């Protein structure tokens, strides 16, 4: 049934069982974002400790694709160096926006699921990209509201 709707099983798993969905007390970094096409609103919180992302949380009123993307993001960033993460996020966001070929699911299941979703359903591109764009602004310490439009 997930395939009939265009959603990969990993996307459906993160929609049904979102990880990281919480306000993060003690966050050292925070940013907000909106997707005007879908109506998504999201806040991303990060706690940086010892030069690494110790924990990431988010709160949103959003569609399933944004939720799944944020949920996967909350798992992916744990323990990562923020500067290196910013470079990775920039490259991944560019891949999302140009609907790049997904990597093999066995090699990189998260990138496969999100890139497959935006290739199959291009209207969901801003939804998948929103959490990552907000994360970049939060890690850069900018206080602005992110808006993702394609």
Topology of helices and strands:
Layout: H1 9-16, E1 29-35, E2 40-49, E3 52-61, H2 64-76, H3 82-97, H4 109-120, H5 125-140, E4 145-147
Parallel strand pairs: 1-4
Antiparallel strand pairs: 1-2, 2-3
Helix pairs in contact: 1-2, 2-5, 3-4, 3-5
Would you mind describing this structure in some detail?
The protein is an alpha+beta fold. Helix content is 43%, strand content 20%. The protein has 5 helices and 4 strands; from the N terminus they run H-E-E-E-H-H-H-H-E. The protein has a 4-stranded mixed β-sheet, with helices on one face. Helix 2 (64-76) crosses helix 5.
What keywords describe this structure?
four-stranded mixed sheet, 5 helices, globular, alpha+beta, 150 residues, Sufe protein. Chain: A, single chain
Q: H/E element string?
A: HEEEHHHHE
Main beta sheet: 4 strands, mixed
Strand content: 15-25%
What is the residue-mean pLDDT, rounded to a whole number?
Answer: 91
Question: What CATH architecture label applies?
Answer: Alpha-Beta Complex
What is the total number of structural domains? 1
* CATH topology call: Sufe protein. Chain: A
What is the chains' assembly state?
single chain
The count of helical stretches stands at 5
Globally, the shape reads: globular
Main sheet: strand order: 3-2-1-4
In short:
This protein has helices spanning 9-16, 64-76, 82-97, 109-120, 125-140; strands at 29-35, 40-49, 52-61, 145-147. The protein has 150 residues and is an alpha+beta fold.
